[in-house]
UniProtKB/TrEMBL annotation:
It comes from the Bacteria. The active site is at 66 (proton acceptor). The gene is aroE. This is Shikimate dehydrogenase (NADP(+)). Its EC number is 1.1.1.25. The lineage of its organism: Bacteria, Pseudomonadati, Pseudomonadota, Gammaproteobacteria, Cellvibrionales.
Length: 278
């Protein structure tokens, strides 16, 4: 019997979730349908009620509905509670709806497993303090980095996140201007979690921070390297990655939650990379 899933966002036409989940389903021999839904920005509740009442078993949730999904869930995982945002809803055996957040899993497994780069004792700089950062801070802190600095245009948003995640580990917060106070190559890893790349912009990071050995990650992904990844390459950076692995990794964790089987990420990443270029 076919099991029904969907991804909800606005806009949603660009979402690669149907491609990824259908590829996972083929790999693990699950019979599923996976659709896109695009309610109005105030229409999440009605859409979620309609979908689950019609027998839907799981939903992925993207911008701008992750907080709506958090409020909709009847139970939350600890990581979704801490993030204050839900990207995965799953019907439980007794009929309640569990809300989870798999973004942190996607990012950290991409960096530590796919790219083979442990984060323990490393100095990390995260740029941005929006929804994506909320979803990943817990898992980044749980890797026990030597330092985690959060830089954001609007400092108060970074400070609010630092206080939410303080029980997990220390987060230092700075404005972009203050980054020039750090030495050349101070950070082992810089994660661009701003949405600047979507607009073709660079976050205002001083180039003195970037050394050839600085590992640079941009959560944004696309057919071409982002402007941030092109910029760090022009400064001699040797290792960098976009957020495609995070995207496929967070989807894999949602898939495991729904189907009880963890799919293989690497072949689906390769297929998606080809699909983006086509
Ligand atoms: P939000 O809208 O919640 O937050 C955007 C963040 O970017 C804010 O911190 C904002 O700063 C900052 N920002 C925007 N423009 C600029 C700029 N020109 N210079 C400096 N800072 C800027 O977005 P999300 O957190 O949800 O998403 C961030 C990015 O991560 C997006 O590109 C998204 O596509 C990507 N993403 C990728 C995922 C993946 O699986 N690969 C998963 C989730 C997100 P301020 O607070 O000052 O406004």
């Amino acid at each position: 019997m076919t099991k029904h899933y969907q991804v909800v966002g606005n806009p949603i036409a660009q979402s690669k979730s149907p491609f990824i989940h259908m590829a996972f389903a083929q790999q693990t021999q699950q019979h599923i349908s996976y659709q896109r839904a695009c309610p109005e920005v105030d229409g999440f509740l009605v859409e979620a009620q309609r979908f689950f009442a019609s027998g839907g078993l799981g939903m992925n949730v993207t911008a701008p509905f992750k907080l709506d999904a958090y409020n909709f869930a009847s139970q939350l995982t600890p990581r979704a509670t801490l993030a204050g945002a839900v990207n995965t809803l799953a019907v439980q055996e007794e009929g309640s709806i569990l809300g989870d957040n798999t973004d942190g899993y996607g990012l950290v497994t991409d960096i530590t497993q796919q790219l083979g780069w442990p984060l323990r004792d490393k100095k990390l700089l995260v740029l941005g303090a929006g929804g994506a950062v909320r979803g990943v801070l817990q898992m980044l802190l749980e890797q026990r980095p030597a330092q985690l600095v959060l830089a954001n245009r609007t400092l108060v948003k970074a400070e609010a996140l630092a206080s939410v995640f303080a029980p997990i580990g220390p987060v230092e917060t700075v404005e972009f201007d203050a980054l020039s106070g750090f030495a050349h190559g101070h950070f082992d890893l810089i994660i661009n979690a701003t949405s600047a790349s979507l607009a073709g912009d660079l976050p205002p990071v001083p180039e003195t921070l970037i050394a050839p050995a600085t590992y640079c990650y941009d959560m944004t992904y696309g057919a071409q390297p982002t402007v941030f990844l092109r910029w760090v390459a022009s400064l001699g950076v040797r290792v960098s990655a976009d957020g495609l692995g995070m995207l496929v990794g967070q989807a894999a964790e949602s898939f495991r939650l729904w189907h009880g089987v963890m799919p293989e990420v690497k072949p689906v990443m390769a297929a998606l990379r080809q699909h983006l270029k086509a």
